[in-house]
Amino acid sequence: MNTSGASVQRALLAAGGVAAVALVAAGTSGATDKPRATGGAVAYRTGPVVSVRPAHRRVVVGKRLLLDASRSTDTSGRIVEYLWDLNGDGVFERSTGARPRLRHAFRKLGRVRVAVALIDDKGDRAVGHAKVRVVAAVHHKATSHAPVHAATPHAKRKAPVRTDTTIHAAANQGSVTISDFKFTPKSITINVGESVVWTNNGPTGHSATADDGTFDTGVLPKGSTGMFRFTKAGTYKYHCTPHPYMHGTVIVRGSNSSGGSNSGTNGSSSNNSSSKKSSNSSNLPHTGLPLGTVLFAGYLLLATGAALRRRVLG
Question: Are 104 and 69 in contact (CB under 8 A)?
Answer without folding.
Answer: no
